[in-house]
Here is the input.
Amino acid sequence: MATLNLRIDNMHCGSCVRTVTQTLNAQPGTHAEEVRIGGARITTDAPPEHIQQALTAAGFPAFVESPSA
Here is the structure.
């Protein structure tokens, strides 16, 4: 399982944080450890591209800032 730090665009309020958290936790093998306006730290078995695609589809483009094993 990898830990990823993500920069997430278009997050402006608590509702955005909730939507991003739900989107992340809906991905197989993924757990949102911390979600805040502008970013998140997650643990996941999924490829980072899948996480980015899911968030972009939800309206929140995401970029991996620092992956670690």
Remarks:
- The first helix runs from residue 14 to 25.
- The chain has a mean pLDDT of 94.
- The radius of gyration is 10 Å.
